Amino acid sequence: MARKHPKHGPYEDLREEEEAPPPVPCWLCGRPTGKTIVWHHPVPKSRGGRDVVPMHAICQNTLTTNFTNSELQRHGMDVEGLLAHPNVRKFVDWVANKDPDFTVAPARKQR
């Protein structure tokens, strides 16, 4: 049997939208993260790394393309050391004005 009156008032379901928390900046490029956040281990788990940092997927792909696990272990949490690499610096400068959810096909490893 249908109700004559709704259980709730007409405006009770239309709550004000809560403000979303501010976007977390990417560890490598510093841009705000978008919908997808990759939690990256700066020191690879295979090398004993436990800390994680937020990154864009494209930024993580760039790191894994340009560095081996041993090199990432040596750099650790030092972002400036990673940015000193010419390929990474070129990538960060290129991606600086892109949308937070921007993505492209990963590059091949250069070894």
TrEMBL record:
Region annotation (Disordered) ranges: 1-23
Name of the protein described by the UniProt record: HNH endonuclease
Entry superkingdom: Bacteria
Source organism per UniProt: Novosphingobium lindaniclasticum LE124
